[in-house]
Amino acid sequence: MLNISKEDFLANKYRCYGEQNPDIMNSPFWNYMVKSRVSVWEACQQFAMDGERFNDAIWCFDRFGSSETTLADGRKILIGGEHEDFYDDDFCIYNDVTVFDGDNNFTIYGYPKHVFPPTDFHTATLVDNTIYIIGDLSYRSERSFTETPLYALDTLSFKIKGIKTQGDKPGWIHNHEAIYLEKENLIYLSGCLISYQRDDKEILAANTGDYYLDLSLMKWSRVKVNHHM
């Protein structure tokens, strides 16, 4: 059985955004979902509510498309991700950050949507005390095809800020890989999927060109182009 009451479940069952940057989200139901990693169906079944219809997706930590970054002190940082596919009632993309301290303790940080939107299938690259969050699949209505999402998470304060960039941007990328080249102070991206628009239709394609982001200038450059849109 869940180690929470049905009242806790009903009071905290939905995703909500933080009001501060960051905002500690201390909900008994959310905390249980992090500890147990059960699906929404399993959680609802515990209260014989698996056949109920809800107004929104139930909050869940059983996700894919999230990132996990290990800090030098052993803490693990999990960012965003989604639960279920877009056609499911419990489909939800998250914008929270969960910090595990290595002793079975954790903190969930929430953020206002305008500060850090729901993010999935991104990369998280640690550089000193900053995690650079690059790319996003996101909800279809939230995609801006000419932009490349970039956010910086401060691992000391856990504040997040959006970063404006210049140069030859990769576009609306996701499902890519990123590595930090310390000597050059660059983040190198490869293996991207890119969403773009053609004739008012959204196209998803493999972007075989590699890119790098110069962190000194916050400027994108394209390395090679093998894909013709």
Tag the structure with descriptive keywords:
Neuraminidase; 5-stranded mixed sheet; mainly beta; 229 residues; 5-stranded antiparallel sheet; Kelch-typ_b-propeller; single chain; 2 domains
Explained architecture:
The protein is mainly beta and 229 residues long. The protein has 2 domains: 1-117, no CATH class; 121-229, Neuraminidase (6 Propeller), CATH 2.120.10. Helices cover 10% and strands 34% of the residues. It contains 3 helices and 19 strands. The strands form 5 sheets. Strands 1-7-6-3-2 form a 5-stranded antiparallel beta sheet, with no helix packed on it. It has a 5-stranded mixed beta sheet with strand order 12-19-18-15-14, with no helix packed on it. The chain is globular, with a radius of gyration of 19 Å. The mean pLDDT is 90. InterPro entries: Gal_Oxase/kelch_b-propeller (IPR011043), Kelch-typ_b-propeller (IPR015915).
